[in-house]
Amino acid sequence: MTRRGSACGRAAATGFTLLEAIIALVIFSMGALALYGWLGSNLKTLERVDVLQRRDASVRSGLQAIRLVNPLEEPRGRMAVGSHVFEWESQEVEPVRRAVSQVGLPTIFEVGLFEMQVRVLEGGAEVGEFSVRQLGHRQVGALEED
């Protein structure tokens, strides 16, 4: 009769040894660290994308609001829309002159082209800045009756 606890029986034993388990844990840990590093990098990138999307939305909102401003009448100013505040300052690009119609006849308006520098503020902090060219106008004459 043979004994199961003999030296021959140990060589035929199945399963992991302690050394194999430690090596498996080291390999798993290296993979997990790489995965967590990649995940952290992706989270930082998503945060930057979120900030840029909010900035883009603020600038688009500012562009819509500034379209309502006549830079000839208000060369500089400040406008609050929701949680945003828009500040602008205008510089004349083309001098103000009498407008003409499509057929070359003078109209009742004077027009000029302006470059507007716009700052977008949210909560007192600047979140964006942009520049836009816009037409300024004012009525200087009256319509003639036919």
From TrEMBL:
Residues spanning the membrane: 12-39
Tree of life domain: Bacteria
Keywords: Membrane, Transmembrane, Transmembrane helix
InterPro entries: N_methyl_site (IPR012902)
Name by which UniProt lists this protein: General secretion pathway protein I
NCBIfam families to which the protein is assigned, alphabetical: IV_pilin_GFxxxE
